[in-house]
Design brief:
46% of the residues lie in helices and 10% in strands. The radius of gyration is 33 Å and the shape is elongated. The termini are far apart.
């Protein structure tokens, strides 16, 4: 049989507690204590109050004893936490530490420890280093491959000036009496072949899995184009890449709507057709991406999807592999929503949307 609970006493009453509960500036822990105090004024046992308030019965007993001895003011206050030794990572050093973290040059915590020891002039354990990494919200991430020859300034210029380039490229179409509609495409190509593509696969812990391979040096190419604003796609398989193959694919894009102007955004590969090239169809204009910047082209996402579908398998011939790739591509040319999902969120679509009112003619 549980022993009788001590009465809370006269230092608090239900009306005062309810009034304090209406204060919207109270913290969550203060409201919880007030709920315990309010229930403690009744006849409920400590376990019942604990279940209703989500705390341990001993905690309920402690809070009610605090209320008896010090009243509501004491119940709603906390003792200041004891201060430990001052951190060696002062404000200035912490800012420098975060700046180094943003560069993404440290592969191990040991690399960060060496930098901190040199900066602070003190020996640090890895435990302390991990604590500092946690305070700075550092995370271990897989870096995106980045070509050493890429010009970040050129990439940023493209991001901010593409809208102006679209205006300049389509100015003649917008000013003409014929009022031609405009389609904007992103274009790229992928080499595929009988070299194995290996990707991760689900299995059980402790189980070794293997993927069959049979490397052979046979290659072909898949060309892809995604319409940025309205959806739609065009694809082509070729045995090689050259300016003649590029002209064939651009002509395929141009013939998808012969009355429209087609703006093609592609990289500056030597076999691509630059603006003004004689092999360009008359209703095609070209905008070139900055060098070594595949992350700007949404078609790259499609190639990764294809590799996920053809990986971990030996293909008998290029024809069999090409048929498998066609099975993936068919999902995109048969549904305009799928290409739009790939370009959604890209800087090209954002800049095209910004220029839609002035360059696209209904």
């Amino acid at each position: 049989m549980a022993r009788p609970r001590k009465p809370v006493g006269a230092k608090a009453d239900a009306a005062a507690i309810r009034a304090r509960l209406k204060d919207k500036t109270l913290a969550g822990w203060q409201r919880q204590r007030l709920q315990v105090a309010l229930l403690g004024l009744g006849e409920k046992l400590l376990p019942e109050i604990a279940r209703e308030c989500g705390v341990h019965p001993r905690t309920v007993s402690t809070w009610l004893e605090t209320l008896r001895s010090g009243g509501l003011a004491t119940l709603l206050s906390r003792k200041p936490k004891a201060k430990g030794p001052q951190s060696w990572l002062d404000e200035q050093s912490a800012a420098a530490f975060k700046s180094e973290l943003q560069k993404g040059q440290w592969r191990r915590a040991e690399d960060a420890r060496r930098w901190l020891e040199e900066k602070l002039g003190r020996q640090l354990s890895l435990f302390v280093v991990y604590k500092y990494l946690g305070k700075c919200a550092a995370r271990l991430k897989v870096p995106r491959p980045h070509h050493a020859k890429q010009n970040p300034a050129a990439v940023e210029t493209f991001r901010t000036t593409l809208c102006a380039q679209l205006h300049a490229t389509t100015a003649a179409a917008a000013a003409s009496a014929a009022k031609r509609p405009v389609h904007i495409w992103v274009v790229d190509e992928m080499r595929f072949g009988l070299q194995p593509v290996t990707r991760k696969a689900w299995t059980l812990r402790g189980t070794e899995i293997k993927a069959p391979v049979s490397p052979r040096y046979q290659w072909a190419y898949t060309w892809g184009a995604l319409e940025v604003l309205e959806g739609g796609s065009e694809f082509l398989h070729t045995d090689s890449v050259c300016q003649e193959a590029t002209a064939v694919f651009y002509e395929q894009i141009a013939s998808s709507d012969g009355s429209a102007l087609h703006v093609i955004i592609a990289d500056g590969a030597g076999f691509h057709l630059p603006a003004g090239h004689p092999l360009l169809p008359p209703n095609v204009q070209v905008i070139t991406l900055p060098a070594y910047s595949p992350e700007l082209n949404p078609v790259e996402k499609l190639w990764d999807i294809i590799k996920d579908r053809i990986c971990n398998r030996v293909w008998v011939s290029l024809d069999e592999l090409e048929n498998a790739i066609d099975g993936v591509l068919r999902e995109y040319w048969s549904s305009p929503e799928r290409p739009l999902a790939l370009v959604s969120g890209s800087v090209i679509r954002a800049q095209a949307n910004a220029s839609i009112r002035s360059i696209l003619v209904a």
